[in-house]
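Internal QA ticket QA-208
Title: Verify multi-chain structure generation after dependency bump
Assignee: T.L.

Test input:
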Amino acid sequence: MRERLTGRQAEIVDAARELLEAGGPEAVTMRAIAESLGIQAPSLYKHFPDKEALESALVAAGFVEQAEAFVAASRSRNPLTALARAYRSWATAHPHLYLLMTSRPLERDRLPEGVEAAAAAPIVKACGGDADRARAAWAFAHGMTSLELADRFPPDADLDAAWRSGIDALRAPHATQPRSTT
Amino acid sequence: MRERLTGRQAEIVDAARELLEAGGPEAVTMRAIAESLGIQAPSLYKHFPDKEALESALVAAGFVEQAEAFVAASRSRNPLTALARAYRSWATAHPHLYLLMTSRPLERDRLPEGVEAAAAAPIVKACGGDADRARAAWAFAHGMTSLELADRFPPDADLDAAWRSGIDALRAPHATQPRSTT
DNA sequence: GTCTATATTGTGATAGAC
DNA sequence: GTCTATCACAATATAGAC
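Actual output:
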């Protein structure tokens, strides 16, 4: 879906998103979407060629929202901490959409131009333009987030403390330390 | 599956694991497992109460293998770097089992005692016993790994450099820096 | 743009005979 | 412990009428 959505397409995407957020990916069936709209499942194929196209539209919407939240956070006095908080809280508010966006390859050809970059830019900026450090920071945030969403941490883990520890470590370029060679 | 596996159970788990590693989770059907063993699907239910019990046995085997690899790595001169390499390479060698182990809640009641702790211990040790820092390091490693397995990094990303950047940041307790308050 | 009818394929699981 | 037979679902997608 590189083009703008028609009115009916937008309605379908909205219905799909409500199902996704309420019941997870397995709740998003063509039948269920159609039922939400009061039509029959085969009718959806007049608006989207297949289910994947619909999912790409969901992912695109997620990036747009993330970009907004991240840009706002990056204006904070402490951008890295604020970004981490925004990252975690957006994902926690939309866990199933977050997983849809991160757990499989991005179909970049089916996304509107620039949406991925718009969400990533505030993170790179907060890392002083260091792309490698920004990817490390993203990986840390994604790791914390996905393990929390999957309920994979031990029950006694202090997640706030783990976030703080990681953010503190990643914040500044440190004085050089014994460095790995490969 | 808290008890030790019988011979036939072990054969079934081996067959399931081969299917998993070769074809991903959707290849692991009761029918396919049975076919690998030359029996019919319903016969499997004489050995395992349901599919979940079988999956727990797979996860347990994964933890045992990880523990071995991590203990060996932690004896290196540079434990954190060696552990990171071991983590990434074990996951890359067994991507579907790794995902099975990390992307949903652990059924700790169905796992043999201590297997989770055995895999985690070398990481905690490499972080000087700091559990929060260890969880941050785990999250970083899991984030890098899962994003790589999901093919979610942009095509031009230098993953080795991102790993290095994160490891360097997480390595030492730094001199105190401006610290986040919450 | 919507409908009905249907193809096709798949799943985990149970009953009951041997 | 294995079999056959079968239940009870569920999914995406297409053809063709209106």
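Spot checks passed. The CA atoms of residues 152 and 159 of chain A lie 11 Å apart.
Status: verified.
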